[in-house]
Design a protein that fits this description.
Layout lengths: L1 E3 L13 H8 L5 H12 L1 H6 L2 H7 L4 H10 L5 H18 L15 H22 L2 H13 L3 E4 L3 H15 L4 E4 L2 H9 L6 E5 L6 H12 L3 E6 L5 H5 L2 E4 L10 H4 L1 H18 L1 H15 L9 H7 L2 H4 L4
Parallel strand pairs: 2-3, 2-4, 4-5, 5-6
Antiparallel strand pairs: 1-6
Helix pairs in contact: 2-5, 4-5, 7-14, 8-14, 9-14, 10-11
Pfam family, one: HTH_6
InterPro entries: Homeodomain-like_sf, HTH_RpiR, RpiR-like, RpiR-like_SIS, SIS_dom, SIS_dom_sf, WH-like_DNA-bd_sf
Protein name: MurR/RpiR family transcriptional regulator
Amino acid sequence: MAVTAGSDPPLEAGTGQLLAHLRSVLPGLAGALRQVGNVILEDPAWASRATIVELGERSGTSPATVTRFCRSLGLSGYTELRVGIATDIGRADQAGWEVGIGADVLPTDPLDRVLRTLLAVDLQAMHETAAGLDLRVVETVIGALVAARRIDLYGVGHSATVLEDMQMRLHRIGIASWTWSDVHAGLMSAAQLGPGDVAIALSHSGRSTETVDMLAQAKASGATTVAITNFSTSPIAEIAEHLLCTSVRETSYRSAEMSARHSQFLVLDLLYLAVAQRTHERATEPWTRAAEAVAPHRAPYETRARRDAETPETTRGGAR
């Protein structure tokens, strides 16, 4: 999902993005509303058939609370909620995905099922991330990146590793960018930014205090700020001018941050490729220079058949 920070567009019934949106906003919901959301995510199939009274009872709340929950998601009422859940389930069934917490790896699973589950979970996350992106917001971010004097990238842990790849690609097309994972170094860099610069912060949870602090400093310095996170109500979402949300669920043996990498790369790849498109003329020269610089460090490609054909008989099979 991609929105300008501070705006949370209402969902529309039948868009097939209700459960992804719910996972994104769930941590920011009040206690009783969060209870309703948790029950839905635990068993979406049951929730799609349940009455408003049954959902209230299972969540330990009331029909009035369920109604408030619907409105907090931008829905007109309970009927629209059920339609949205059923649409998500149908979409997942058609794609061969499992909905809810069932798509997981168990200790006794054979390797082929582990592979299928891994592929299904990651593909679903990428499809839901792509479906939730507001391309108007993405275009705004791309325009800022193209015009930027410099770009700061903030993240810690797994996020920093993902951002290092983005930095390398931007440098290859001649765009000045730096990745900061140490909060002291990042804060010093953020303090040097100003209008016309861009700061991108990556945090799956949106609650990494170092990343939040670095982005806050960049905003105070006048830079355009962008956050990429899985949770649209997280602290980092409150700071950023532009918000790009992934849609990822944690599975066993992989933390949420690890599960998020493919969807994070998808968002960053989109930004990079669009920037490369729009800077094609000026990017061609640095791209070529970079390729020429690393070319001598790559061994020539040779097939075994070609090596054998060029190797004397005495060295290949021994003296005869």
